[in-house]
Design a protein that fits this description.
Blueprint: H1 8-13, H2 24-37, E1 43-46, H3 49-52, E2 56-63, E3 69-76, E4 85-91, H4 106-109, E5 113-117, H5 156-173, E6 177-187, H6 189-201, E7 207-211, H7 218-224, H8 230-239, H9 244-253, H10 256-259, E8 266-272, H11 280-287, E9 294-299, H12 309-321
Parallel strand pairs: 4-5, 4-6, 6-7, 7-8, 8-9
Antiparallel strand pairs: 1-2, 2-3, 3-5
Helix pairs in contact: 5-6, 7-8
Length: 322
């Protein structure tokens, strides 16, 4: 895919023109308070010691949006015992779930504890999931991006972002986690959730890594690219024209470009200038709102992915800031 979005100079200056809802902070405060009020204690069950040997792995169940039980993994480095460790909360890309612990072994191998959040209602497209979405009745395009889109209170992404914020809170409460050294990390949908978790958890998150993040600058994205998953929304609204005003209003409440100004974490984002899934301008829309210390890794010839060398940059960034 050739360059199709704004020039690099324009990207550096680009700001979303989507207006923030007047009550956004109070609205999110209410969602999180409701989730905490409905929460039960997390349950951690030792997992497959015969496979992972000295690597400590737990199958996690915790309370997310509305008290819904969300699955995850908690993984600690071999030989770390009960030592309090810096911990990375990880989120998964669209269509995937938490997978298996072996898919998340890099960070424990270099000394970090990892808390992996499963993605409600997803998993199976490219890796395993184990968490159902809470019931919802209403029309939707195949996928989850239009589920409940007529209202921010019923929208799927609202539930997902509350889960993401709660994952940070739950991780911070676990034995062996240094609650003063928590990072959030993910790519694509996981990157969008990392931005949301950093915004909604404030100073509890010290480092934010968001690779080619999804869920940012929705109203530009759905008119700029015809690639999934943003295309789910456009195709749905092409038929449900009566829902266009309500849907566009809903998207403002979960827009990473609007939430990003609340991020206090030291942040490292990445962008592919040939990315037609999450167009570069939508990534910069979030990045340019962050006022905390930040860096952008720019990959001129990459699409919706990052080169493997970026993994080492993220590890160095964690060493420097966590």
């Amino acid at each position: 895919m050739p360059w199709f979005d704004l020039s690099e100079r324009e990207l550096a200056l680009y700001r979303t023109d989507t207006a923030e809802p007047d009550n956004l902070d109070l609205w999110w405060k209410t969602r999180l308070e409701d989730a905490r009020a409905a929460a039960l204690p997390p349950v951690l069950t030792p997992y497959a010691a015969d496979a992972y040997g000295p690597l400590s792995v737990w199958d996690v169940e915790f309370s997310g949006y509305g008290g819904d039980r969300v699955r995850g993994w908690y993984i600690r480095p071999a030989g770390s015992g009960v030592e309090s460790l810096p911990t990375v909360v990880c989120y998964i890309g669209y269509g995937g779930g938490r997978g298996l612990p072996s898919e998340h072994a890099l960070l424990p191998s270099v000394g970090y504890a990892v808390f992996v959040m499963d993605t409600r209602g997803q998993g199976g497209r490219w890796t395993l999931g184990a968490t159902p979405d809470s019931g919802f009745a209403g029309p939707e395009h195949p996928g989850v991006m239009t589920r409940g889109i007529a209202s921010p209170e019923t929208y799927y992404v609202t539930r997902l972002m509350v889960d993401a914020a709660r994952a940070v809170e739950v991780a911070a409460s676990l034995d062996g986690v240094d609650e003063t050294r928590i990072a959030v990390s993910g790519g694509s949908q996981g990157g969008g959730l990392a931005l949301a978790a950093a915004a909604l958890n404030g100073e509890a998150v010290k480092v934010c890594h968001a690779d080619v993040p999804f869920l940012c600058d929705f109203q530009r994205a759905v008119t700029l690219t015809d690639a999934e998953p943003y295309a789910e929304i456009a195709k749905f609204l092409a038929q449900h024209v009566d829902l266009i005003p309500a849907a566009l209003d809903t998207l403002r409440y979960v827009d990473g470009a609007l939430l990003a100004k609340r991020i206090t974490a030291t942040s490292l984002l990445s962008v592919g200038l040939m990315d037609e899934v999450c167009p570069p301008s939508t990534v910069y829309a979030a990045y340019n709102e962050i006022t905390a210390p930040k860096e952008m890794a720019v990959f001129p010839f990459s699409g919706h992915t990052t080169p493997r060398v970026h993994d080492e940059r993220k590890l160095r960034h964690l060493r420097a800031h966590l």
